[in-house]
Fold this sequence. Notes:
Elements: E1 2-8, E2 12-18, E3 47-54, E4 61-62, E5 64-67, H1 86-91, E6 113-117, E7 120-123, E8 139-146, E9 154-163, E10 170-174, E11 190-198, E12 202-208, E13 210-217, E14 224-231, E15 233-237, E16 253-264, E17 282-285, E18 295-297, E19 302-306, E20 321-329, H2 330-337, H3 345-348, E21 349-354, E22 364-370, E23 373-382, E24 387-392, H4 408-411, E25 419-425, E26 428-434, E27 444-445
Parallel strand pairs: 12-17
Antiparallel strand pairs: 1-2, 3-4, 3-11, 5-7, 6-10, 8-9, 9-10, 9-16, 11-14, 12-16, 13-14, 15-16, 17-20, 18-19, 19-24, 20-23, 21-24, 22-23, 25-26, 25-27
Amino acid sequence: xxxxxxxxxxxxxxxxxxxxxxxxxxxxxxxxxxxxxxxxxxxxxxxxxxxxxxxxxxxxxxxxxxxxxxxxxxxxxxxxxxxxxxxxxxxxxxxxxxxxxxxxxxxxxxxxxxxxxxxxxxxxxxxxxxxxxxxxxxxxxxxxxxxxxxxxxxxxxxxxxxxxxxxxxxxxxxxxxxxxxxxxxxxxxxxxxxxxxxxxxxxxxxxxxxxxxxxxxxxxxxxxxxxxxxxxxxxxxxxxxxxxxxxxxxxxxxxxxxxxxxxxxxxxxxxxxxxxxxxxxxxxxxxxxxxxxxxxxxxxxxxxxxxxxxxxxxxxxxxxxxxxxxxxxxxxxxxxxxxxxxxxxxxxxxxxxxxxxxxxxxxxxxxxxxxxxxxxxxxxxxxxxxxxxxxxxxxxxxxxxxxxxxxxxxxxxxxxxxxxxxxxxxxxxxxxxxxxxxxxxxxxxx
Length: 446
């Protein structure tokens, strides 16, 4: 078992305890260590292919990448039609005539301040018009890169942006109180990001976000890809890791973030997995201080995760509440626990949430099955460091294995054996056949 420590931007520290499985004769995986650019004719792999956002109650909007220092697309403002003659002009009703209207500002002013410089942003001409700028940012930056130069783990950090009106330089949309930290993003905005991942194949996904899903495609001809979809979630941000230990830690702010780390399954150095599992597990939480990948204890047949965050919000009084979600493919549950029927998960699996001394264990847990995945939700527990575990109940009886298929001959009734005998009477002989042949009267068996 190895522990891998990775930094999520400057906002939090994520530690992943993983089981490393090195595939036999696996090709060496080399993921670029620098930030991935937007895909182009020049860069076709290890790049950001597309980004869409869906505002609440609206349809998906495909965003355009705009490099820092470049003017963004703007929807033209409607103008009043020119009068063709004096009579037409007099007939016009000024109350219904269309007058020039300035386009909606891309970002509401005063809600964010410019922070660190960014390479560019993904935005749309209608960003302000559809209300996406209401929280003070004018687009999003998608920073995809390895967790560090020694790792092939892919980290995707989604950041709100603020662009200079005069120079078009893209910067982080920071908190007005501290521009080093990103301002909160819209929790109702659904973000979907497609990455071209080259030879990288998804193993397990660890997300700081809400309702996060991944859709990985393996294509040897054009290169692999993964589409990550989810929404920002409120995260208690710590100034340092000490604030995530014990029950006295205090967050410097509660900020809505969206970040993902994907551990490869085809890395000969640190690929994730238990032998034979699918590599499609995913966990998500808002406890980004110490968020781990699933750890399997084969002797206890128990899987555990951890998450951590400061106990208190910035006011020092409000207790931070957390959630944890795990998605386990049904075939993995069969391999790990002998759970033959995924529909039995709610009664067969036992979920527990424990915290450090003084922490609340009050939590709502729920197990459901959807699309052949077992979904485990734990919500409402308090931080600092909850530990979640899932194990099979001692009373659960696995479904018996299906009997081996029998051959048709074994199932069919036994075939009768036909015998033949020769019977003689003087110089006359005849052959008699049957299952129990007998010579006719006056004949003797030869």
